[in-house]
Amino acid sequence: MKIESVDFFYLSMPEVLDIGDGSQDALLVRIRAGGYEGWGECEASPLTSIASYVCPMSHSACKPLRYSIEGKNIDGAEDIQRISDAVHENSLDLLQADHTLSGIDIALWDLLGKKMNEPVYRLLGYQKKFPKLPYASQLFGENAEETFTKAKATNAAGYKAVKFGWGPFGKSGKENDIAHLMAAREGVGKDAYLMIDAGTVFRENISNAQERLSALNDINAYWFEEPFINGALDAYKKLSTSHPKIPIAGGEGCNNFVQAQAMINYAGLDFIQIDAGRIGGISVAKRVADLAASKKIIYVNHTFTSHLALSASLQSYSGMEKHFISEYPVELKSLAREIGKEQILPDTNGYIHTPDRPGLGITVDTAAIRKYLVDVEIKVKGEKIYYTPEI
Amino acid sequence: MKIESVDFFYLSMPEVLDIGDGSQDALLVRIRAGGYEGWGECEASPLTSIASYVCPMSHSACKPLRYSIEGKNIDGAEDIQRISDAVHENSLDLLQADHTLSGIDIALWDLLGKKMNEPVYRLLGYQKKFPKLPYASQLFGENAEETFTKAKATNAAGYKAVKFGWGPFGKSGKENDIAHLMAAREGVGKDAYLMIDAGTVFRENISNAQERLSALNDINAYWFEEPFINGALDAYKKLSTSHPKIPIAGGEGCNNFVQAQAMINYAGLDFIQIDAGRIGGISVAKRVADLAASKKIIYVNHTFTSHLALSASLQSYSGMEKHFISEYPVELKSLAREIGKEQILPDTNGYIHTPDRPGLGITVDTAAIRKYLVDVEIKVKGEKIYYTPEI
After folding, report:
1. With bands split at pLDDT 50, 70 and 90, how would you rate the model's confidence at A291?
2. Domain range for residue B100?
3. Cβ–Cβ of B59/A16 closer than 8 Å?
4. Which residues of B are less than 8 Å from A166 in CB distance?
5. What is the reported pTM?
6. I need a labelling partner for A29 at 20 to 30 A (CA). Which of A109, A251, A282, B208 fits?
């Protein structure tokens, strides 16, 4: 069947706050072919990604994404691969391309799953899926007391794994960080998995990160995430071999396979975290998951947005039993909560499950999200090359 | 002095062809402060980069670039560094940001040079500059005869170094490539430096690249450039240790320092090629040049656009005597030729020189380029957030 339409929808909360909460806006992609409809989500700047889809060609290796997608055939997994390859070739020099491709690739898998009446993870070759332990992913409080209160509430809600990140961490001195770390452990209790996410705050500065290792050891941190910017291989490697030894996690900033490969091969990571909404979609995420498994590194999804994005991120490693943990956003803004009619909720044992419905198994609630639609219009040489489509 | 205005100008040839010629459009940046004016150029998709400059904030680490620049102070080199750092922090999750920052950083150096009445290379700490041997950079012909004709013409024009790339190379079998390679050598004569640029055509496929090594050896290729996509460290490393040994060049796709660092440390490169218009500007390019020198790898500019971009790319390694070679585009479209009132031309010995005028030493010919201006308008929620400014 031929791809008939590719539509981008920019959604936003009425007010976007200057905090590390990626659920305040969203960019959805709807692809229609042969009477089916697939949906995907880019974890990306919406306006910039839309521009990359519709921009005029600059030269043979800097074409808009639409060039590689519209009117193409989509009958099987190999067609998705062909489209992904075409984007990488035709939009090689368009930096934003991978973020935009991500939502497109996800929507194509959703579409194909619906057509073949199979969940995506089965189309990826997994015979069965395994439950994942969700870690409640949230921002640090503004002060240690607030972090404690949040940690206690998350524990009371039944989560066995909790992550705190961003916010004040790394910005007001070591003592302040230690207070947050101790508050977090005290709040979640001694048995919970507790992860700490530095949100790249130390950039490439190894000693600033090393100074936190003792405190991370004291609170028995399950991992220390993104102390440095993505791709700072030497800094990661040095930290991973420092004492006390704390497992290191990273990789959410990777926007293609070879970047993730470099992080796996050279950064000394224990956990590689991949956002299907950034790395080029489910196709590339699956390739990274396979590599991680072969290198004995634990694959974890990165997801801080909707359950549509969560389902997309789960598919690529659903069938990998040892890779048992999953980022689970617990502070979603209403926009992100309302995107899917179905939610992926922990069962009575506290585990989550990849949906067993066709495609991603999440029905986009077009009526609910209409109120978040951002009206956009882009004109080039007097011609309207993008305007917000009917949802 | 305070930054008063930052203006983006999208220029394009009336018709953009589907060929690997990056000089068919351009994105110029003009920054004004304290009565001075600086100009820069992004080697990037113009519309997408403009969108990244003006887009609404998504969250604390996905802000538009304007947030980190407008109204900020610019009195010395440390202010440029501060702005660059701010963009990297505030636009961490905005993939296009580095390409957009590149033009901004270049314009800030030009502005500062004009204010301090010094060429940029001196502001970077170089006491003197060294001549560079320009290699005439051009596309392969459509067939071997055409490649021969182009090579002969380039030789007749006096170039001692010539590069052919892209086009048919790697796309129609090994024999066709060999015919092009032999034609190129025959045309340029036996004494010229001859470089071959595969334009990432083999993606991650090592054996396809290895199959060309003998022919590259036969024509005494000075380097083999970008056989693989940027960041494919393992593929580069394996090729660099294959026989016959051909020096490997790469890196033009790097959009930040740590990517270039990884290519230098793990890819087995002999030459690292950096485009100041992509990697984040002159500031980041200089950092890579210093690292390359310390690792005994030759630094080379990547430039396929205007002489404004060429001057920007030269500044970062102007003072490095051993890094003596420079990419020099010889097939510029009229748009790219007309951007600068001054040209950087080979002297009687065939060498080029970084301009000694203040800033980048290139005066943008606003009257000449007006005819190439592309009219753009971006509206979000009914508000015009970008329209083509007066040039």
Report:
1. very high
2. 3-119+365-387
3. yes
4. 60
5. 0.98
6. A251
